[in-house]
Design goal:
Layout lengths: L1 H15 L4 H11 L3 H25 L4 H21 L10 H17 L9 H14 L22 H13 L3 H28 L2 H15 L10 H18 L5 H21 L1 H21 L13 H23 L14 E5 L2 E4 L8 H22 L2 H18 L1 H10 L1 H9 L4 H19 L7 H26 L17 H6 L2 H5 L1 H11 L5 E3 L2 H10 L3 E2 L9 H19 L5 H10 L4 E4 L4 H10 L6 E6 L4 E5 L2
Parallel strand pairs: 3-4, 3-5
Antiparallel strand pairs: 1-2, 5-7, 6-7
C-alpha cells in the first residue's frame, strides 16, 4: 500500500501546506518566526479555509462543489496576499525543527494508519465518502443514508477537506487520509517545536523536548496521527504559541500576533470539539493573567496577552461549541463515585481528583515537577514583569488545575468524565513544554554568566528540566516499547497491537485491492445501501461510497443509534443466520432498502451465511467473490 499512499502524501502536502505557505510566510517574516512555525501556520490556514468554505456552503444550502470553489478562491487570495505583502525581512531557519518534523512524518508514513480492528479510521473515511456521494459540504450522516439534516457532532471540517482533496485529485479517500496522517504527525512536531523554541529561546532545547514528546508523550506511535483528536494538537500548540507572541508591547507585532491567534484559534475551534474546549480553557487562563496582573504588566516590554485575540477566540467558541456540546456532554463514562475510571480518586465530601500523571502522562514525579515549573514561571514572570513568562506558566498549570484542584476536577466529573478525559489527553505535551521552559532558563543563565564557572540557577534549571524528561521517559517507556514489540499483558488498552501487527492485518490487503476495485465499479455513483455484519459493513463504508444498514455500537452515530441502532444490528444478525429462510431474508432487505449484501468469509460467523446465501439464486446474484470478500446483489 505504501506506493499508493505516497500519492496521498503528495496531494496532502499541496492541499494542507503548500497552497497556504504564501500567506503564512508573509506573517512569519513579519513576526520573525522559524520555518517550523510557518509550516504549522500554513497547516492551520488550510483548516480555516476549509471551515469557511464548508460552513458558508452549508448555510446557503449549497453543495460540496460550491464549498470547494470558495476554498479555491481563498487559495488564490493567499497567493495574492503573499505577493502583495512580500518582504525582504528574513525568517529564522529552525533547521533542527524542520528535520525533526520530517523524521516524525517519515515514521508515521512507515507505521501507516490503523486499517483494521474496527479503528476510528473507517468512521472518518466513511464521513468523507458520504460527502462525495451526496455532494454535501458538511457531514450529517456518515453511514446510514437516513436523510437526517442535523450535523453529525463527531464530524467536522476535516472530512470536508478529505472529500475536497479526493474529488480534485481523483485519488481514493483512504490514500489521501494515509498521506495526510504522515503530514499531520510532522505538523504536530513542527508546532510543538515552535512553541518550545519560543519559551526556551533555544533550538537544541526545543529539539530535545520535541523528540521527548514524540517518543514518550506520543509513545512513538503515529498510527492515529490522522485522527482529528490527534492532529489538532498542532492547532492547539500554535494557538498557545501565538497567544504568547501577542504579549509583545510593540503595536505592530502585537497586531500581527493577534491576527495569528485568531487564525490558529479558528482552526482549533472548527476542527474538533475537544480541541475547541481545550483552547477555551487556555484562553480563560490567559484572561485570568490579564485580570490578575494587568497593573504589574502595564508599560513593560512584554505585557498581558492581546484582549482582542483571546476575547475574539472566546466569543467564537461560544457559538461553535454550543452547536455541538449538548450531544457530546450527554455521554458519560460512568456516574460520579460509582463507575468512574480508576484514574479518579474520591477525597470525600463528594470531591474528586485525578491520580498525578494520568491523562497528561509521565507519572507523579513528572507531574509534580511540571507543577513546580509552572509556579516558578508565574513567580519569575511576576517578579520580572514578564507577561510571556506568566502566560506560559499559566498554560503549564492548566492540566494541574483540571486534574488536581478538587473543585474544578469535580465539576468536570459532574459535567462529563468523557469530555474531561478527552480534553486533558490533548494536553500531553505539557510536561515537555515545562521542561523546555526550565531548560531554557538554564541556557539563558549560562549565556548570562559565562565568566562565572557555575551558576546555581543554571544547575537547578538544568536539573529540573532533565528530571522532568527522565521521569517521564521512565514512566512511559513501557507504553513506547509496546508500539513496536509485543509484550504479553502489557499492551496499551485500545491499541493492543504492534505496528507490524497492524500493518499485517490491513483490511485492504486482507480483502484484496482487486476485490475492492470490482466492488466500487459495481456500486458506481449510486450510493447504495449494503447489508452486512456491523464490522464488515463498517470497513466497507470507509473503503467505498456506500451506506450500510448497521455499524458497531461504538462507532454508530448517536442520532441514529438512539432511534434504532440495536434493531439494525439484530436485523443483520438474523440476515446472516444460516437458518433464516429466503423469504425472511428478502423481507429484511426490503425493509432496510438494501441493494447489496457484503460478506467476509474469512470470519467464522459469516462462512455459514455465505454457504446458505450462495444457494439462494432467486434472491442473490454474485458480483464479487474472493476467499475473503464476497459481494452479492439483491435480485428484485
Amino acid at each position: 500500500m505504501s506506493g499508493l499512499d505516497a500519492y496521498g502524501i503528495g496531494v496532502a502536502l499541496v492541499g494542507a501546506l503548500v497552497a497556504w505557505l504564501p500567506s503564512a510566510w508573509v506573517l512569519g517574516r513579519r513576526l520573525q518566526w522559524t520555518v517550523p512555525a510557518i509550516f504549522a501556520g500554513a497547516f492551520s490556514l488550510a483548516a480555516v479555509a476549509t471551515g469557511v468554505g464548508g460552513t458558508v456552503a452549508h448555510l446557503l444550502g449549497a453543495t460540496l462543489d460550491v464549498a470547494l470553489g470558495i476554498v479555491l478562491a481563498l487559495v488564490l487570495g493567499s497567493f495574492v496576499i503573499g505577493w502583495r505583502y512580500r518582504s525582504e525581512r528574513g525568517v529564522r531557519s529552525g533547521v533542527q525543527g524542520v528535520v525533526t518534523g520530517l523524521l516524525v512524518g517519515g515514521l508515521a508514513f512507515f507505521q501507516r494508519p490503523w486499517f483494521a480492528f474496527t479503528s476510528d479510521t473507517f468512521y472518518h473515511l466513511a464521513a468523507a465518502r458520504s460527502l462525495l456521494a451526496t455532494n454535501s459540504p458538511l457531514v450529517t450522516d456518515p453511514f446510514y443514508r437516513s436523510g437526517t439534516t442535523s450535523l453529525d457532532p463527531t464530524s467536522g471540517i476535516f472530512h470536508t477537506w478529505l472529500a475536497m482533496v479526493s474529488s480534485m485529485s481523483g485519488i481514493e479517500v483512504e490514500y489521501v487520509y494515509a498521506g495526510f496522517a504522515a503530514l499531520a504527525a510532522a505538523a504536530v512536531a513542527w508546532a510543538f517545536w515552535a512553541l518550545a523554541e519560543r519559551v526556551s529561546g533555544s533550538s537544541w532545547v526545543a529539539t530535545v523536548c520535541t523528540v521527548g514528546f514524540a517518543a514518550f508523550g506520543l509513545w512513538g506511535d503515529f498510527r492515529m496521527a490522522g485522527l482529528p483528536n490527534r492532529f489538532t494538537v498542532a492547532y492547539l500548540c500554535l494557538a498557545l504559541f501565538t497567544i504568547i507572541e501577542s504579549t509583545a508591547a510593540r503595536p505592530e507585532r502585537r497586531r500581527l500576533a493577534t491576527l495569528a491567534v485568531l487564525m490558529s484559534g479558528a482552526a482549533a475551534l472548527l476542527a474538533h470539539l475537544a480541541t475547541a474546549a481545550a483552547l477555551v480553557i487556555y484562553v480563560v487562563a490567559a484572561l485570568l493573567v490579564v485580570v490578575v496582573f494587568r497593573h504589574r504588566l502595564s508599560e513593560t516590554e512584554t505585557r498581558g496577552p492581546s484582549m482582542v485575540a483571546v476575547g475574539g477566540v472566546l466569543l467564537a467558541a461560544l457559538a461553535i461549541i454550543g452547536a455541538k456540546a449538548a450531544t457530546v456532554f450527554s455521554v458519560s463514562l460512568g456516574d460520579a463515585g460509582g463507575g468512574l475510571p480508576e484514574a479518579f480518586v474520591s477525597i470525600g465530601a463528594g470531591m474528586f481528583v485525578a491520580q498525578p500523571g494520568k491523562y497528561v502522562g509521565g507519572g507523579p514525579v513528572a507531574f509534580a515537577l511540571m507543577t513546580a515549573a509552572g509556579l516558578w514561571a508565574v513567580w519569575q514572570g511576576a517578579r520580572r514583569r514578564n507577561g510571556a513568562s506568566i502566560v506560559m506558566g499559566a498554560f503549564i498549570l492548566v492540566p494541574v488545575v483540571l486534574l488536581g484542584f478538587p473543585p474544578v476536577t469535580t465539576l468536570g466529573v459532574k459535567l462529563s468524565v468523557y469530555m474531561l478525559a478527552r480534553v486533558t489527553l490533548l494536553m500531553r505535551f505539557t510536561p515537555f513544554l515545562a521542561a523546555a521552559w526550565v531548560l531554557g532558563q538554564g541556557a539563558l543563565a549560562a549565556r548570562a554568566s559565562r565568566d562565572v564557572p557555575v551558576s546555581r540557577q543554571r544547575v537547578l534549571a538544568f536539573a529540573v528540566g532533565a528530571a522532568i524528561l527522565v521521569a517521564h521517559g521512565l514512566a512511559s517507556w513501557q507504553s513506547t516499547q509496546v508500539t513496536f514489540i509485543r509484550v504479553p499483558d502489557r499492551m496499551r488498552f485500545g491499541e493492543a497491537y504492534t505496528v507490524f501487527e497492524s500493518r499485517e492485518r490491513d483490511i485492504r490487503s486482507s480483502w484484496g485491492m482487486p476485490a475492492l476495485w470490482d466492488a466500487r465499479a459495481a456500486f458506481g455513483d449510486d450510493y447504495p445501501i449494503v447489508a452486512a455484519a456491523p464490522e464488515t459493513g463498517y470497513y466497507l463504508a470507509g473503503l467505498a461510497n456506500v451506506a450500510i444498514v448497521a455499524a458497531p455500537p461504538s462507532h454508530s452515530p448517536l442520532a441514529v443509534e438512539i432511534v434504532d441502532g440495536p434493531a439494525r444490528r439484530e436485523d443483520m444478525e438474523r440476515l446472516l443466520d444460516p437458518d433464516t429462510s429466503t423469504s425472511e431474508r428478502r423481507a429484511i432487505l426490503d425493509a432496510r432498502d438494501a441493494d447489496y449484501v457484503a460478506l467476509s468469509p474469512g470470519v467464522d460467523a459469516e462462512v455459514a451465511a455465505w454457504e446458505a446465501m450462495r444457494a439462494e439464486t432467486d434472491l442473490f446474484e454474485v458480483v464479487v467473490e474472493t476467499r475473503r470478500f464476497v459481494l452479492l446483489r439483491v435480485v428484485r
